[in-house]
Amino acid sequence: MSRDGVRDLLLRGGRIVDPSQGIDAVGDVLLRDGRVAACGGTLGVPDGAEVVDVAGLVVAPGFIDVHVHLREPGREDVETVATGAHAAVAGGFTGVCAMPNTRPVTDNQATVGFVKRQGEAAGYARVYPYGAISVGQKGETLAELGEMVGAGAVAFSDDGRPVESAHLMRTALEYARTFGVPVAEHCEDMSLAHGGSMNEGLMSAKLGLKGIPAEAEEIYVIRDILLARRTGGHIHLCHLSTKGSVELVRWGKERGIHVTAEVCSHHVSLTEAAVDGYNTNAKMNPPLRTAEDVEALQQGLADGTIDLLVTDHAPHHYDEKEREFADAPNGIVGLETALGVNCTWLLHRGVLTLSQMVDAMSCKPARVFHLPGGTLAPGALGDVSVFDPNRSWVVDPRTFRSKGRNTPYGGTTLTGQARLTVVGGRVVYRAD
Amino acid sequence: MAGSLGKDLLGLSALSADQLRLLLDTAVPFREISERSIKKVPTLRGATIVNLFFEASTRTRISFEFAEKRLSADTVNVAAAASSVTKGETLVDTARNLEAMRIDMVVIRHPASGAAQFLAERIESNVVNAGDGTNEHPTQGLLDLLTLRDRLGSLQGKRVCIVGDVLHSRVARSNIWGLTKLGAEVAVCGPRSLLPNAIGEMGVTVFDRIEAAIEWADALNVLRLQLERMQAGYIPSLREYNRVFGVTRARLERAPRDLLILHPGPMNRGVEIDSDVADGPQSVILDQVTNGVAVRMAVLYLLAGGRPELAEAAKTGGA
Questions:
Q1: Interface confidence: ipTM more than 0.85
Q2: Is A117 exposed, middle or buried (0-12, 13-18, 19+ CB in 10 A)?
Q3: How many of the other CB atoms lie within 10 Å of CB of A143?
Q4: Is B28 part of the contact surface with chain A (CB cutoff 8 Å)?
């Protein structure tokens, strides 16, 4: 029996995949006092330990999604920190970073602290708050980043909208550097994207919908990379969606500029074709792009140009999506489908190895955002994702723990599913 | 009710060449009804049709209303405020309320692309798209096809150039789909800022010079230039637009053949088209309006389940 009264947990006989230690081997993992006590080999069963047979399953350091919208405070009707964190563990995630475009905006230490406490109270995935870069996400005045770091903010972003002023972004990069946290940008030139609701291309021309050109994103990607070069700050580029963006990030990394990047599961699996028929569940910002973009994003993940896989989990009320395409809100839920989508489109199609996928979903997010976890090394946080990469299931949005039902994958058969999720040595999700 | 067209007419992109020909062939006998002193047949007696217009429209609404009345349908006109995210009834609620009143057909005009399809997927009544955003305006496309076919015979191999603001034009899209399916060659001509970026992938030729388009074409379909395009910065001025892209008598006189001039209306005389062209011998603009009532009668008739061979009989009141 451990000190905190929680039984030791022995995960027996799984395939341990932990790129942080270079491990891919069958073995046992022992969790004690909320931490990893031992990893690998055949371990004895301590007195009173709970033993879970995970033979045939993959045991990985807990997945961390650095880009989710939990809607609290403000839109508790569409998601709360608790329902979002519950959805997270059901999808194999042990940690999420909550974007600050709440109502009121999470641009101060009080709200940051509130979001963090709601996460702790819920007791599912760990919830790491983002703080806003600018007061009210208005793009005018730098918010009090220092105090927010003190209250638990792990990064800053005005996500949902770009920081239009290059001067403000420059200042944010410099100021955040003081505290050693990344600044994350939603790359979108609003004057180019204005009124657009899908990718600009053949499909938008056919459907008569105003398009958002790839350049609306790429102009900000290169601007921010150049500002990171100037300031030495850490720019993290959110939800990249175009081939050009991948090329620009590659350009920046080759020059040693401190740039990291993420891609959403939907942007490496679906194209603008999903919009045909005015499907509002395929409407998000940035929009689904072309097959050429999907291929470049997949390649960027494989070669490490793109660091992280994220969901951009964005719940909406069902009737907000039940309307004319141009008027429907952007975004889809992703926490409960991401692992299946990543396994189906990336792992099983040979784009990523199992180790690379775990790296992009766990180890690298922890490293890039300086979060605990992302490893099963002894002494690390006892956060573990146990999943079956070969189990097929049909997505039924009605079964989601998230309040959101807005997904383009409803009815799709995915291969890959979370089976057991452990946070702090405690089982917080067990598949039926 | 579902006839040879299916439940709805949402756009020409989804129709086959045979369905397009059926619609045009069915319109011909209906056109004769409008030439009579008693312009009414009992074909749709007892059917209830709602004309649901979320956008201002004069000629399309009136044309539909005449088509409905000449087929003896009961019609209601609803001029609804365009939907807004923050206020007013949603389109889905409007649809459900209409359905609850047990109507047979809805003719919808809406500023959002895809709105007609949205409605059609949610109600059992037949839905006719009278223009949705910048997507399609299928009955306009059909009346353009009929007008061209009247004058040119078969459209196979004929050259039609759509001139103007293709980017924002539902008329252009319906014309491109319809003409292409019937074997015509289609071109567009206008400032590049008013053409979709991907226009070249849509199977049409692009002319940057109106003179080249006139030299190439058998017919020009001249689109209305919305004044707000200038305000939104797509073009510098209406004056320059007329000087560079205006369809003028002087330009037409240099054409190697007599072109047909179509315009979906309402015209900005002196902007996209000069008055002496609009009123001149090559203009078939008023034929388009006449044909508009006929093709709309054909659409309503076929959607209501009317059999094509009975359209002839409908003329004598027998169907």
A1: yes
A2: middle
A3: 26
A4: no
